[in-house]
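Lab manual, section 2.4: Encoding a predicted structure.

Procedure: take the sequence of the chain (306 residues), apply the prediction step described in section 2.3, and record the output as structure tokens. A sample record is shown.
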Amino acid sequence: MEIVFKENFVERYKNLTDFDIFKEITVKELRRSIRVNTLKISINELKSRLKEKWDLEQIPWCKEGFFIRDVKGERKDIGNLMEHSLGYFYVQEAASMIPPIILEPGENDIILDMAASPGSKTTQIAALMENKGLIVANDFKYDRIKALGINLQRCGVSNAVITLMDGLRIKNFEFDKILLDAPCSGTGTIRKSLKTLKIYNTKMITKLSNMQKRLIENAFLNLKKGGILVYSTCSLEPEENEGVINHLLNKFENVKIGKINININKSPAIMEFNNETYHEEIGNCLRLWPQDNDTEGFFVAKIIKN
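Recorded output:
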């Protein structure tokens, strides 16, 4: 299938990355990956159950994560496996496993997952907390809440409550840690969703960026002093990533961007865009192009409230 890139897309991305390499990886099928749900089964037990029919390759940055491939090269319907229905694993893109790891959830933490549905990162956080502490899993649409509830139940999560509200309406709380996996344009997910290319337009990106800035401001206001806020998107657009973090740094004096040290190939953060030079701390953010690790494109920032 021929992939058609819009002219304005090509012009923009040629200034951001090596477009030939980006284009080459974009037409390549995305590797499937799973995360073992340690609330229900150990890593070794699941590997033992799957080893006869499935090859598992360790994801370097997540000990519970594995790239998965049918040994005969016939099946791709991982979600139809009995082990999936039992909640023993979650079908989750490899780069998507990074934000909960960076959040470092503790057993006594009170955590807000601000845009939680469908629950991949919520269930991962719960597993890291061993079902202790408390997760407030919020989303703003009822249809999305249904999927979230089903996945929390399937994975045996018992330390989460679900709330249904606009993230901007959350007020006057002091969470230990907050994950804002923000609604975004999804330009990092083109490999599995070609529709993203068809609907691509910069006006939409500007609109999303404005919403993301409001959400991250409110998240920061609901974070306790010394707390950690992880901001992430599956977008490659500077306005939705570095631009949002730069806005937060300019808005509040007590923002610090922490360094992210994980075993992964990464690209430099965008430090200047549209004639705007970003704050030097933006260099601590994690920017992943699809060609860096043969995954989706992703962006993660670790924000500390001083």
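Check your result against the sample. The mean pLDDT is 96.
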